[in-house]
Amino acid sequence: MAEYSSDNLRIKLAEALNTVIYGNESVTVTRYGKPVAMLVRIDTDQRADSTDEHE
Known about the structure:
Layout: E1 2-5, H1 6-11, H2 13-22, E2 27-31, E3 34-39, H3 44-54
Parallel strand pairs: 1-2
Antiparallel strand pairs: 2-3
């Protein structure tokens, strides 16, 4: 699992997203060394359901 500090994530957001999308890997976001958030890939079926709700 990849890990980015919140400061570093601002600079490398595209890299982090590519890790999630193409590397099928979760990304943990840390602040002051503690995990505070996680980027995870959403299954295609879930994305389709989510899109339908916003229309």
